[in-house]
Write a structure and sequence with these properties.
single chain, 384 residues, alpha+beta, seven-stranded antiparallel β-sheet, 35% helix, 15% strand, globular
């Protein structure tokens, strides 16, 4: 068996997705462990995996796809009137309301407008994996920009900030609520804090295939460690690790920080996002259409101070149709570093997830998703 041989199942009419997936694997030029899954109106229609070391139950790091999982919990709490998007963060978390942050709303926090993209002095990796500690440090900190006047991706800390609001309002962590209300009812292989007896199923992340051209391009776009981008990715702290390594750190896998620490499989990500919008396993959709619309609505658009590019943010999610034109308006989800992706498209009753073991060259990741999604939506049209 070649390492890139594709295994898994596909529904009638969706066979072209396999061909595109195989082409992407072959273009990598190396054994690539990857998973792709699609649900349509609550039914699994694509479930593929590949890689010499991959098994049907292999688990991969999800990176910032984790934020989407955490914010599905936030969406449920808003739907249940436990949280209010237009309430001040300081209402739930009084210690937060210092240094000009007193009027910041939960809606603005979730759309990366707080100015707390990272810590002034950075975090050790053990500290960064501890959401309570991260929230305590950032809650007391002066923001890097005036809150609600600009946005900048809170890459490694957003889940700690939103998770602290959840903890203050409910007395429970977002990780615990995720397990109780999302993971366990749907029997999902998704983990904020991978149990030690399941760690053998985790496939360690691998670095990007480096070529002279890729290294040159990345070097040309690099920012200083003490720039806002550097601070947001913790590059100014001596104990920092490269982003691709994060899932490989035992402290990250065991603690499950809500910003980047979830471990799981693509089929379960696709199932969860499907469960958010349509009935599945005899259970009503997790979110009402009004909640889906509220969290998928664009809140701000413009120059992202951390990513240094034009960016739109929804409430805790990416407005995914802005990235992939084949999707319906209102699609929402969250990408992850290195090429990970997971989202729901409510207008088409569709969910999609893609995980890969080897860190992707960043400019190529969205192009690969677009290729797969074109095949997925062409299949949807054929089977209507």
């Amino acid at each position: 068996m070649r390492g890139n041989d594709v295994r898994g199942t596909v529904a009638d009419g969706f066979e072209p997705v396999r061909e595109v997936f195989e082409a992407i694997l072959d273009a990598e030029g190396a054994d690539l462990c990857a998973q792709v899954a699609v649900y349509h109106h609550g039914d699994p229609v694509v479930d593929f995996w590949a890689g010499a070391e991959a098994a049907s139950d292999s688990l991969l790091g999800t990176y910032s796809v984790s934020k989407g999982l955490a914010h599905l919990v936030v969406a449920l709490l808003v739907q249940q009137c436990v949280l209010d998007l237009d309430q001040r963060v300081g209402h739930y978390w009084p210690d937060f309301a210092v240094h000009g942050k007193g009027e910041l709303s939960l809606r603005e926090l979730l759309s990366h407008q707080s100015g707390l993209a990272g810590a002034t002095d950075g975090f050790s990796m053990a500290e960064l994996a501890d959401d309570r500690l991260v929230a305590e440090r950032l809650g007391a900190q002066r923001p890097f920009w005036r809150p609600a006047t600009a946005s900048g991706y809170h890459a490694l800390v957003m889940g700690a900030l939103s998770g602290e609001v959840v903890r203050r309002a409910t007395g429970q962590t977002v990780q615990s609520l995720f397990a109780t209300h999302l993971r366990d009812p749907f029997k999902l292989d998704l983990h904020f804090g991978l149990p030690a007896d399941q760690d053998h199923r985790f496939l360690p992340a691998q670095p990007m295939v480096a070529t002279p051209e890729r290294l040159r391009d990345l070097a040309a776009s690099a920012t200083a460690p003490n720039s806002l981008s550097g601070i947001a990715f913790n590059r100014h702290h001596p104990d920092n690790h490269e982003v691709w390594e994060l899932p490989n750190l035992q402290v990250v896998r065991s603690a499950g920080p809500a910003s980047f620490g979830a471990v799981g499989a693509a089929r379960d990500l696709a199932k969860l996002y499907s469960a958010a919008i349509v009935p599945i396993d005899g259970i009503a959709p997790l979110l009402t259409p009004d909640t889906v619309a509220a969290f998928g609505q664009i809140q701000c658009v413009g120059w992202d101070l951390v990513l240094r590019q034009e960016k739109a943010w929804a409430v805790g999610f990416h407005p995914v149709s802005e990235i992939y034109p084949s999707l319906g308006a209102g699609a929402f989800g969250h990408s992850g570093a290195g090429g990970q992706q997971a989202f729901a498209d409510p207008r088409n009753g569709l969910s999609y997830a893609f995980l890969r073991r080897r860190f992707h060259y960043p400019p190529q990741a969205d192009a690969d998703h677009k290729r797969i999604l074109r095949a997925v939506y062409a299949a949807v049209e054929q089977v209507r």
